[in-house]
Write a structure and sequence with these properties.
single chain; Rieske Iron-sulfur Protein
Amino acid sequence: MRAAAALRAARPGADLPDPAFVEQLGRRLRQALEAEPDRRRLSRRRLLLGAGTAAAAAAAGGVAGVVGDRLATGLVKSPELVPADGAWTPVMAASAVPAGRAVRFSTGAIEGFVVNRGGRLQALSAVCTHLGCILQEAAAGQLVCPCHRTAFSAGGDVLYHELSHAPPPLPTLRTRVRDGVVEVLAR
């Protein structure tokens, strides 16, 4: 069998593709190029990504509006984001967060930081409350906005800003440590 396969492969033109296959492939490519793109075709992944992004934006906008109103009237000091249909989601090992530091995490729907404040682990939103930019950790656990000169403390309070008025503090997330793993309440 091996010898027959080797002899067949040694024939002139054996390395060329089958003409029937080439014709069928050409027909399919011409049909795809000539056809009007079907804008209704949507993969499940793109649909879920779009729906998740829209839901997160709507939730963030609603929370920002309510929290902003309450902060302006002094009713809320540090808001807490609590999803309606949330579930405890593991984000990292508790040992991965050194004292005085903030470590980034993402659940897909939530961008956040887990901060270690004297052995107490707490999760904060990683989204700036001014323009929605994703914050970055700087020295001494400060969370800085790359879009404008604003920084938040590891507790979520505004440390400094160059805006006409101070943005609201960062929302906290419900956090727990279970079996050495930090979990946040998220969707």
